[in-house]
Design a protein that fits this description.
Radius of gyration: 16 Å
Largest sheet: 8 strands, mixed
Pfam family, one: DLH
Structural class: alpha/beta
Organism: Vitis vinifera (Grape)
Mean pLDDT: 91
InterPro entries: AB_hydrolase_fold, Dienelactn_hydro
Distance between the termini: 37 Å
Order of helices and strands: EEEHEHHEHEHEHEHH
Protein name: Dienelactone hydrolase domain-containing protein
Strand order of the largest sheet: 1-2-4-3-5-6-7-8
Number of helices: 8
Length: about 240
């Protein structure tokens, strides 16, 4: 996860952005999350952010868009108040990476999923962006979630893809040294060879790693491509997320 593109185009943090609210989730009382959508929905989507965390305005805007389709969307603060902050002159990338491994993120995600199920949620999907993509691929190797979408994921291995048991969509950028298009297409070949696993791989031309949540509103092509990816993500969840 030391790939440079993971840290490009950082957002301006906005703790008060979005139509939802910040709540404590996961049972332990320490993990906060941005929560939006109908609280009585039986269908929930877990957002696992990139390294810039759950206060990124575009991430929350997307969460609100998904919530408007009837899903309860939960975007936890997996970094416990310590997202990547490139404006901090003392920020040390390697120290941050060591402190915020995806293994811990996966365990936190499982706790959130358990909390959602305890409240009556019957089906859960997960969307992972960059850092979060690896977390979601790992969640998809079990029965914790019913559908997965990874968007411009960080480094994922063939072995991890081989373990996937959940319908998964992989949305990638043409310009991406973290997850090059040819690698994502190779993942699609691995998944297609697995019996009973539906998959979808799509590469978006002319955009770079992170574009779905780090686009600039002045970039007409970037916005159009991001919105197309958002639609693909929502269609995937709508296809596989059913009330039990």
């Amino acid at each position: 996860m030391s790939i440079s593109r993971c840290y490009e185009n950082p957002p301006s943090f906005s703790p008060g952005s979005g139509a939802g609210t910040v709540q404590e989730v996961g049972g332990g009382g320490r993990l906060k999350a941005y929560v939006t959508g109908p609280l009585d929905s039986k269908l929930a989507i877990l957002f696992v952010s990139d390294v810039f965390g759950y206060e990124a305005p575009n991430l929350r805007k997307l969460a609100d868009k998904v919530a408007a389709a009837g899903f309860l969307v939960v975007a936890p603060d997996f970094f416990y108040g310590d997202p990547v902050d490139l404006s901090n002159p003392n920020f040390d990338r390697q120290v941050w990476i060591a402190a915020h491994g995806t293994d811990k993120g996966c365990e936190d995600a499982k706790a959130v999923i358990a909390a959602l199920r305890s409240k009556g949620v019957s089906a859960i999907g997960a969307a992972g962006f960059c850092w979060g993509g690896k977390v979601v691929v790992n969640l998809a190797s079990s029965d914790h979630i019913q559908a997965a979408v990874v968007l411009h994921p960080g480094r994922i291995t063939d072995d991890e893809i081989n373990e996937v048991k959940t319908p998964i969509a992989i949305l990638g950028a043409e310009i991406d040294d973290a997850s090059p298009p040819e690698q994502l297409e190779h993942f699609g070949e691995i998944l297609s060879a697995k019996s009973g696993i539906d998959c979808f791989v799509k590469i978006f031309p002319g955009v770079a790693h992170g574009w779905t949540v780090r686009y600039s509103v002045e970039d007409e092509w970037g916005v159009k491509s991001a919105e197309e990816a958002h639609g693909d993500m929502l269609n995937w969840f709508s296809k596989y997320m059913k009330e039990e």
